[in-house]
Structure formats: C-alpha cells, structure tokens
Amino acid sequence: MFDTIIIGAGFAGAVLAERLATQRQQRVLVIDKRQHIGGNCYDCFDQHGVLIHQYGPHLFHTDNKQVFDYLSQFTEWRPYQHEVLAFIDGQKVPVPFNLNSLHSLLPKSLADSLELKLIDRFGYGVKVPILELRKINDKELKFLADFIYEKIFVNYTAKQWGKKPEDISAEVTGRVPVHISRDNRYFQDKYQAIPAQGYTKVFQNMLDHPHISVMLNTDFKDVFKLDLETGRMQFMQSEFTGQFIFTGLIDELFASRFGELPYRSLAFKFEHLSSQQFQEKTTVNYPNDYDFTRITEFKHISQQVTPGTTIVREFPQDFERDNPSRNIPYYPVFTDENKQKLDRYLAFAEQFENITLVGRLAENRYYDMDDIVARALHVFDARFASPG
Fold first, then answer.
1. d(CA 270, CA 116)
2. 245 and 377 share a domain?
3. Which GO terms describe its cellular component (predicted)?
C-alpha cells in the first residue's frame, strides 16, 4: 500500500514526505503518536483566541536561502525580529549579553573600560562563547566573564539541563555567547520571519497531497514491527519491504538494545490575563529567580489585537518514558558517556539498509528548525532523489 513509512510529523518527517510524494510520486504514510501534525512546532488558538505555541516559542531564523525558499512554497511570511530580556538583579537586560547589558548592570567607568577591552581583543560584532571568555588571563575581563557566568548562565543552565555547565557538551554551551555589539536581537540571521498563518498551516500545506496519508494518535510500535536480528519489517501484521524513515527516539526504535539514552523534558503552565500586555518583549528569562526558566507572551509574536493576553511559564524537568506529564523528549542530553552509547546505536543502524534516521531525537543532535529542514532536504537528495 505504501512505498515509504515515516514516523513523526515534525519538520523532518513532513519535508521528506512532501519530497517523496511530489518528486518521486511515492505513496507515503506519516505516523505520529500525537493528535496533531507539526511536532513541537504545533501552534493553535487557545479558548481566548490567542495564537499560542503549544510546546514553547518557535522563532524561525536562517541564513540558508535554500531552506527559506523551500518553506516559502507553503507559507507567506511576516517579518519578526526576536528580542529576549533576562531578569538580573531586579532589572531586565538584553540577552545574549551584549554591550547594552554591560552598561545596564555595571558602573559606567568599569563598563567603559570593559567595552574597550572586549572590542580591542575580539573586535566589534563578534560573538564569544561564555566558557571561552572565562579562560582569558585579564583581571577585568575575568571579572566580567565570572559575572556573566554567575548572573546569566550558570543557574539558567542548571535549571535547563539539571547539570553543571562543565558537564554539558560544547555543542550546547557554545550556543550561549557574549555578543560584542549593541544589537539587541537574539538572532542575526538574514531571514527572520513567522509563518503568516502559523506553523500548523505550513505542515497542513506540506502534507496536503493525494499520495500522502497521515495516521495520528498512533504509537508506531502498535502498527510497525522491526526484527532486530533479521531486519525484516511488518506493518499492520503484513510484511513491509519499502523504506522506513524514523524521526523518533533512536533507543526506542532499537528496543533499548544498548541502554536508554537520557533526554530533558519541559512542563508548560499557560495563563490568560485580562491586560493588553504582560511584558516588554516576547520572552523574559529568569536565570536566578523562580523554578521556571522563562515567560513567553505570544501576542508579541502574532501581533494580534485581542482583549487579553496569554503567557506561558516554562519548567524544565527530567524525561520519564512512562509518565504522561514528563514523556515528551525535547532535548537530547550531550555527555561523553551518552555519546559512546549513541555511537553504538548509530553503528547498529547502519546494517538496516531500508531504515533512515533523521532528526534531533533519531540522530541525537541539536537541530534548529532551519537545520532540520536543511538536513531533511539533504537526506532526500542523497538517498531518495534518484530511483534505485
């Protein structure tokens, strides 16, 4: 019945389904355990008419013109420049930490001196990873690095990952820079925009094809079986000899053969308020106060005009496979021990020629939205673009 079965209706699965159906005329089935398409990018209107992001804010940004042009087939865009504040010592300052943050938090004479030293050492407009800045042998710069580390980075990271920053891979810590500029934007990519009708509409347009079928509210293990010894596959108790694309947990696909991989989950507490606006910017981080990491106000993103406003507080938590309130994996945990386990899974996966792993969870890599679209397009070109 199907040439390819895809597990997961997020960007990785949707892009590959669209490409296979439109470019190869394949019959594709997309299976997702949730009741909706779009994965963690899913958005919807709450009961007050505010367009919310159900799994936390998703802000599209990229320097990749191919990715932007590809997605532009499925949506019109509304320009959006994301700014984030952090609540530090009773005031809100821009993050990533920049020269404006520097002058907001420190005395003028010290801030002036540090600004000159930063520009002299690194140049203007440069982003320096916080852990690199901490290694510099200069008394004032060392003070600044420790100040930023303690006030903005260390407690936020501890809440987000449940670990000390030094125990997290540089792939994660490198994403938290000090920006030597006065640009308050969170991203500096060439293309920054929000889908005009929301993310869910993008997925609906991508999957709207007669060759694509979607099966929601379905755990793939209930309808698909993989014999780990022979590589034989079954779908709905019948032999399946087509292609199988998997975007879920790699350890789950292979029945935890080499042990379970750890992930981090999130809990979201939504609240609707009668006021027109709750906070100055879309997102305010709380690295040192409260149990949550940030508050997002969605009307800053949608630019809607409604009587009230909806916010969400974000609480990082441990991932628990059998706990419905904790069993959504948002982030792989990157450590040397976990990498060794992952390498065994990836090596084992290579023996299954009809199985393709794509995505943050399947590959255990951190992908932004544009990264995973680019990755899916690359996988299609490399593995499926030509018959055979």
1. 43
2. yes
3. cytosol
